[in-house]
Amino acid sequence: MNEKNILLIIAGGIAAVKAPDLIRKLTQEGVRVTPVLTKSGAQFVTPLSISALARSKVYTDLFDLTDEAEMGHIELSRSADLVLVAPSTGHLMAKMAHGIADDLASTILLATDTHVMIAPSMNVRMWDHPATQRNLAILKADGVQMVGPNEGEMACGEFGAGRMVEVTEILQAVAQYFKTGPLSGRHILVTSGPTHEPIDPVRYIANRSSGAQGTALAEALRDLGARVSFVTGPADVAPPTGVQVHRVQTANEMLTAVQAVLPADAAIFAAAVADWRVDEPQKQKIKKQASGALPDLKFSENPDILALIAQHEKRPELVIGFAAETSNVVENATAKLLRKGCDWIVANDVTPATGIMGGLNNTVTVIDANGAEAWSDMPKVEVARRLAKRIAGALS
Ligand code: C5P
User: Fold this and answer.
1) Is the same domain home to 207 and 71?
2) Residue range 374-383, pLDDT digits in tens
3) For labelling, which of 8, 29, 288, 341 has a CA lying 20 to 30 Å from the CA of 326?
4) What is the Å distance from ligand 1's center to 306 Cα?
5) Which of 17, 52, 156, 360 does the annotation list as catalytic?
């Protein structure tokens, strides 16, 4: 981060009180921070304290002749290596999504050609509101990078998603963005974990995937400098830091999330997606019948996300599938490679005796057009590192 220029937009949420700490930590890392404070942001932190910490002028007004003479808003929007919005309110997200430029911050965001990273902060109801979720989808499609929000207790006393991430998490995301590595500048999608397909409000179909291999892969790709979009089902293992996390429950939700993060340079489908879902899950818990009659469940096939993305109009350059097999591993996995139209298949034997599902180690065979490469038994993090290196090689 040393010597990088960040244009920091501070909007008017209670999390603006974290901005001084963020500026202090960024400047300690050698970052030059140019602060822009919205009118409502200035209700939470003073221009003087922000200016003192950033050791820079604070820009607040679009129509300031002196500012325009010194550095016009267009130049301001282009001069940075990164535009960081922390906190971003629901209001500012809405303006960004719809191209509204009615103050300095929103005008900069409309005029900039620099990467934009935002740390949303708002009440859980505001975050969950369909309007905010629509705006979020638009912003993601526009290439705006989200950092958080987290779940937690809010300043207003409510609990839920919408709380701004901690300053350290913003620093990690910024450091990640500036990191140089063989995959820097690359966007890679990783799916991970199981999916849960509801039967009724309390029951679901699931599988034993822990999400360990997908998580390790996302971390290894991140460590080589990639920007990682991590679409995860309800896994046991916590998602990595420094990646964009999209949490889903069902296969259909996973498909929607995956499509929303495209385009990507590579996509790795490490999730153990349920093959079937129950048609029309019951709204009430299904009761045991006194007669002993069993529930009449009807199933539908879930979309094959890997196969769909391998044929997608925005198909990533490299599409990688996993094949969890319990017999004839290489033969079945090779057939899968052809059937699904992916570039590589990472095959493994998941018979319970191997302890692979949910375990720490993995024994994989990597299959591509050139044939099968059997790797010895090794920790999942090592499998991930080697795969990440192989991916970096293939994309170079
Ligand atoms: O067909 P099978 O489930 O064995 O294929 C495994 C591969 O396909 C994995 O990469 C998995 O993530 C992906 N898959 C998928 N959508 C499904 C089923 C599997 O993306 N519905």
Assistant:
1) no
2) 999 999 999 9
3) 341
4) 6
5) 156
